[in-house]
Amino acid sequence: MADYSNYNSWLNESRSRAWSIYQSTPTPTTKSEEWRYTDLSKLFPLENFGLEANPETSTKKPARESLTDPINTAGRVQFTGGLVTNIQLTPAMESQGVGLDSLQNTTHEKHQEIIQANLCSHILPPESGKFQALNAALWTDGIIIYVPKNVRIEMPIRGKHHLVDNNQVVCTRTLIIAEEGSHISYVEEFRSDDFNNKRFVSSAVEIIAQKNATVDFVSVQNLGRGIFFQAAQKSLVHRDASVNTLKVTLGASLSRLDLNTQLLEPGANSKLLGLYFGDENQHFDHNTSQDHLAPHTGSDLLYKGALDGSARAAFRGIIRVGREAQQTDAYQTNRTLLLSDKARADSLPNLEIEADDVRCSHGSTVGQLDPEAVFYLLSRGSSRQQAERLVVLGFLGDVLTRLPRGAFKRVVKNVTDAVEQKLHHG
Amino acid sequence: MSNAPALEIQGLSAKVANEDTSILKDLDLVVEPGQIHAIMGPNGSGKSTLAKVLSGHPSYQVTSGEVLYLGQSILDLEPDERALAGIFMAFQYPVEIPGVSIANFLRTALQARLGHGEELDLFDFQDQLLEAMELLEVEPSFAERPVNDGFSGGEKKRNEILQMAVLRPSLAIMDETDSGLDIDALQVVSKGVNSLHKQNPEMTILLITHYQRILDYIKPDLVHVMVDGKIVRTGGPELALELEKQGYADWKISS
Question: Minimal Cα–Cα distance from A230 to chain B, Å?
Answer without folding.
Answer: 29
